[in-house]
Every structure is written in structure tokens, then in C-alpha cells.
Write a structure and sequence with these properties.
By secondary structure, this protein is of the alpha+beta class. The chain is built from one helix and four strands. Strands 2-1-4-3 form a four-stranded antiparallel sheet, covered by helices on one side.
Length: 67
Amino acid sequence: MMKIFYSVKSQFYADGTVTAELNGTRRAFEKPDNTKTQFIHKDVYIDWFPSKREAYAKIKEVKGSSR
């Protein structure tokens, strides 16, 4: 059975700035792989969650880590 997965894009900049947002959804049988991409001035993470509630909890967690 296909499920809907929610992605959260988190960006951690070299200057300490942190952003996080709901990045989209994907219909799939299994959860997509999480990814990390490193750039010169930031790291970008895409994390997948099985529910919107868990995705928003991750956004809250990431934004809380910037304080």
C-alpha cells in the first residue's frame, strides 16, 4: 500500500543561521532515504517522515536548536 511521506528541509549556515521548512510530499511504498548535502557555507538535510505531525515536530526541533 502506498503511503504519503513528508520531507523537511533543514539548512545550517556557517554563520550560525538555521532554517527549516516543510519541503514537500511523496507517495511511496517505503520511506525515501534521508540526505545530507554539504556546500561551502551551509549543510542541507532532507529528512522524510511518515506523518505531517512528525515533520512539524522536526521543524520545531531544528528551529529551537538555533537559539
